[in-house]
Amino acid sequence: MHEGVDAPDTIAFLAGVPLFQGAPQRALEVAAGVVRPRSFDEGAVLFREGDTGDALYLLAGGLVKLSKVDLGGHEKTLALLQPPEFFGEMALLGQATRSATALALSKVSAYMLFRDDFQRLLTTYPTVNLNLTTTLANRLRGMDDEAQVLSYKDAPGRVAYVLLRLYRSGVVSLEANGALVRLTHQDLANLAGTSRETVTRALKALEEEGVIMTRPKEVRIIDPDGLEEVLHGIR
Ligand code: CMP
């Protein structure tokens, strides 16, 4: 056990991570004995696309952006992750290189689980293996939905989709007068796979619909159901 790590706390944290949900106590104890805590400052790159990877990350605090650079040189944000999500498992399965870059958008704390320990947990505990498969299936489903939206929806529909995804995944601050998304138009453009100018116009259209309010560097979602209607073209 790493110095300074409180085993019961680590076990309680691990029990809430999707990878270990419903796993036997013994699996949590084994994992708690091998994970290593790390922290990263805001702006730190945890790893870059193409790097060789030997560990996955169990996110305990902060916000992480996963992104790729597309063939045209534009950044595409794949996901914004917050605790208790995990990432970085793909380089431990098959190809050893990172499929995306991970950037700390705030101060981040995480536990690292290394390849051999991860593989041992997967082969010993079927629940952990099933949880991994479920996460990968959910991610694939999300990508299929996104591919549909990005190919067939107009700009307000795409931006509505991105805002709803952030809202549902909890990457917002819930306040009395709506859910606050603290991202720039460029950040939203990277998520929606479009340009900043297009996002600015789409946000204006959504604001005129009365479903959001915008201020520099933030969007307030005031009517998620209305956003859903825009996404489905009912309004
Ligand atoms: P890895 O390839 O090791 O490093 C980048 C990580 O980003 C990858 O593992 C996954 O954990 C994660 N990742 C890749 N693609 C997506 C996606 N479409 N949605 C969410 N996470 C992803």
Structure description:
- Strand 11 (212-215) and strand 12 (218-221) form a beta hairpin.
- With 235 residues, this protein is α+β, with helices and mostly antiparallel strands.
- It contains eight helices and twelve strands.
- The chain folds into two domains: 7-139, Jelly Rolls (Sandwich); 153-231, Arc Repressor Mutant, subunit A.
- A four-stranded antiparallel β-sheet has the order 1-8-3-6. It has a four-stranded antiparallel β-sheet with strand order 2-7-4-5.
- Mean pLDDT is 93; it is low at 1-5.
- The longest helix is centred in the middle third of the chain and has 27 residues, at 126-152.
- Helix 2 runs antiparallel to helix 3 (115-124).
- It has helices at residues 7-16, 25-34, 115-124, 126-152, 155-168, 185-192, 196-208, 224-231, and strands spanning 36-40, 45-47, 55-61, 64-69, 75-81, 86-87, 101-104, 108-114, 173-175, 178-181, 212-215, 218-221.
- Adenosine-3',5'-cyclic-monophosphate is lined by residues 53, 66, 78-79, 87-91, 98-100, 139, 143.
CATH fold topology of the largest domain = Jelly Rolls
| Biggest sheet features | 4 strands, antiparallel
Number of helices: 8
Radius of gyration: 19 Å
Bound molecules: adenosine-3',5'-cyclic-monophosphate
Count of domains? 2
* Order of strands, widest sheet: 1-8-3-6
Alpha-beta content class: alpha+beta
Helix content: 40-55%
Average per-residue pLDDT, rounded, comes to: 93
The CATH class assignment of the largest domain is: Mainly Beta
Spans of 5+ residues with little confidence (pLDDT < 50)? Answer: 1-5
Number of strands: 12
Q: What would you give as the CATH superfamily of the largest domain? A: Jelly Rolls
> What is the H/E string?
HHEEEEEEEEHHHEEHHEEH
Specify the CATH architecture of the largest domain: Sandwich
What is the CA–CA distance across the termini? 56 Å
What is the percentage of strand-forming residues?
15-25%
Using the alpha-carbon principal axes, give the shape: elongated
